[in-house]
Amino acid sequence: MTKNESREFMERFDAMDVRFDAMDARFDAADERADAFDQRLRRVEILGEDTRHLLEVVAEGVAGVTRTLEALRLEMAAGFREQREFVQTLFQELDHRVTRLEEGLSS
Predict the structure, then answer these.
(1) Residue 78: how many CA atoms within 13 Å on its side-chain side?
(2) Residue 1 has pLDDT above 80, yes or no
(3) Residue 85: closest CA among 97, 96, 93
(4) Which residues 6+ apart lie within 8 Å of 9 measured at CB?
(5) How many angstroms separate the CA atoms of 27 and 33, rounded?
(6) Is the pLDDT reported for residue 12 higher than 70?
(7) Is the distance from CB of 15 to CB of 23 less than 8 angstroms?
(8) Would you say 9 and 1 are in contact if contact means Cβ atoms under 8 Å apart?
């Protein structure tokens, strides 16, 4: 191999070496982006799990409130029935008293 050929070969080798260095830098950058993406994905998964847990807590709270409201509704309905029965009894007594008074006045 001549001196010129040798120099040309070395120049080509150096150019290839520069290109390989550039490719290595690109691969390193791609690896860093992939690592950053993996970290963000892990955070999203954790946030998703936290959100799912919070939704379960809220759902349990809503179910508890629903049970409490149903119990209150039943209690109030029973109370209203008692009040209605009490008022009906009072009206019946009052009606009997008024009827007796009217009968006493008409005699």
Answers:
(1) 6
(2) no
(3) 93
(4) 1
(5) 10
(6) yes
(7) no
(8) yes
Alpha-carbon distance of 67 to 64, in angstroms, equals: 5
Q: Is 3 helix (H, G, I), strand (E, B) or coil?
A: helix
Question: SS3 helix, strand, coil % of the chain, rounded to 5?
Answer: 95, 0, 5
Radius of gyration over every alpha carbon of the chain, rounded to an integer in angstroms: 45
Distance linking the first and last C-alpha atoms of the chain: 152
State pLDDT tens for residues 49-90.
Answer: 999 999 999 999 999 999 999 999 999 999 999 999 999 999
Q: Would the pLDDT of 25 be above 90?
A: yes
Question: Is 53 strand, coil or helix?
Answer: helix
Q: pTM, whole model, 2 decimals?
A: 0.54
